Amino acid sequence: MKIPKTATENAMKKLIAAFVGSMALAAAPVALSAEATKELKMAYDADPVTLDIHEQLSGGILQLSHMTFDPLLRWTKDLGFEPRLAESWTRVDENTMRFKLREGVKFHSGNELTTADVKFTFDRLKQSQDFKAIFKPFSGINIIDDYTFELVTSEPYPLLLNTATYIFPFDSEFYSGQTEDGKDKSAILKHGNSFASENLSGTGPYTVTERKQGVRVEFERFDDYWDTESPGNVGKIVLTPIKENNTRVSALLSGGVDFIAPVPPNDLERIRNDKSANLVTMSGTRIILFHMNQKRVEAFKNPKVRQAIAYAINQEGIAAKIMKGFATPAAQMSPEGYQGYNESLTPRFDVAKAQELMKEAGYEDGFTITMMAPNNRYVNDDKIAQAVAAMLARINIKVDLKTLPKAQYWPEYDNRAADMMMIGWHADTEDSANFYEFLTFCPDADTGAGQYNAGNYCNPEIDALVQKANVETDLDKRAAMLQEVEQRLYDDAAFVPLHWQDLAWASKKNVNIEPVLNVMNFPYLGDLVVE
To answer: Which ranges carry the Solute-binding protein family domain (predicted)?
Structure first.
């Protein structure tokens, strides 16, 4: 999303914020199991900013969450769900889902997981500045017994399981009470020195044994980790933050580290050609697109003009030449795996067809527009905008292009300062409806609908179909509705889709990273095997 000013994107922008210095955890590390004897040295572009996983919603914190905690359930590679701390779940009624916890699961402190910990966590998430919006549909939690609980929504909510992937149970006993200086151990403090930001007791495969901002974070395998069927054999992980792309890649190729992320597009071939390295890429879920502002340009109100622009853009050419193959051409918002993904929709590049549509619409001679894009937010964003402007010239649309650093671009975007504007969006819920609600809904300042719809496109019938889908708990019926939404947006040329940005990771040959990678971009490192 911008990813606009959503909690996720704002958190990602703060990923390089300062840590508190090195510290020891209250939960002491334990001896490694006989099987977990391998060591992994990994380099990311930043280290997590806190140990309180409710303080910030970001990719780095979600990675930390999966290393040191465990969720009730987690995403699979094909965007399904697999049980983790919740071994099963059943729907009780339209508003209620019942979960059964695994028994005998231990926290790093030695305390045993029960539903009291789930309730403590649920209540804390509802108070978290970054997470409370995600949990707004939930009206409460019912505790049945020590291992059975129910999540309740205020109305039928088909994304209940999606949201449950964010519930990583906290050790309620460990995080309750006061510190020696009288501070509440359960407090969530943004960028503050809270107990939870410096101390950790989860149920995950690793404990944190050392932290030093900008230098290293050390993890050791938790000997009492509940998942005895995990193939993971890494006993120690050392995370080194390396912000500079070239330095990070060089660290891998020189043997200084075993695993890096992200891999910049310019270095893909360099890694592919190195016999000691292993490169894994996959299509991501962040859509890059252009809006066409119908309030600024009369011609954009004509669907034939919008369709002409859609036909004039060569998504496959942009993905191949500008993105160097590091993108998946798009004809819709929903990536494959999302419920709204409509497999019948494909890019429609056809200049002759575009010229014909412009003539039919009465704009054969074209017109002039302004265009804005960032030049340091998305991969090759300024080059993409230049290519799109050149493509539009072929249908006599002259473009006055301006690219800006992201800090200057987003205020301009909020002001709808150009006729066509670029944006990228990733759905927090990994669900199609999130795209439409923010990017194509009729703008409504009171409700926040269409908050980032810089095209001022408005189709109440499509909005109503999305809203109907949002309370449909039969997932097959819901998928059909969302796929119809994509079809209607495509037919209407509501926006100009470009591509989904790809993801890339690299490792030494003996580090088997592919099985633990996923499109959400938080590898399940607890299951990592080093040969």
So the answer is: 81-444
Q: For domain 37-47+204-276+509-530, give its CATH number from 3.30.70.1350, 3.40.1010.10, 3.40.190.10, 3.60.130.10.
A: 3.40.190.10
- Span 253-273, pLDDT tens digits: 999 999 999 998 889 999 999
Considering Cα of 158, then 162, then 163, then 167, what sign does the dihedral take? positive
**CATH code at 282-501:** 3.10.105.10
| CATH top class, domain 70-193 | alpha beta
Q: What distance in Å separates the CA atoms of residue 143 and residue 506, rounded to the nearest whole number? A: 44
Report the SS3 class of residue 508. Answer: strand
- Measured between alpha carbons, how far is residue 19 from residues 48, 198, 214, 293 in Å? 8, 10, 8, 42
Nearest in space to 350 (alpha carbons), one of 289, 391, 379: 391
Question: Beta strand pairing status for 496-508 and 259-261?
Answer: antiparallel
Residues 6+ apart with CB under 8 A from 136: none
Q: Using CA atoms, how far apart are residues 140 and 142, in angstroms rounded to an integer?
A: 7
pLDDT given at position 155: 93
Pick out the chain residues at pLDDT < 50: 1-34
pTM score > 0.85 for this model? no
- Distance between CA atoms of 61 and 69, rounded to whole angstroms? 11
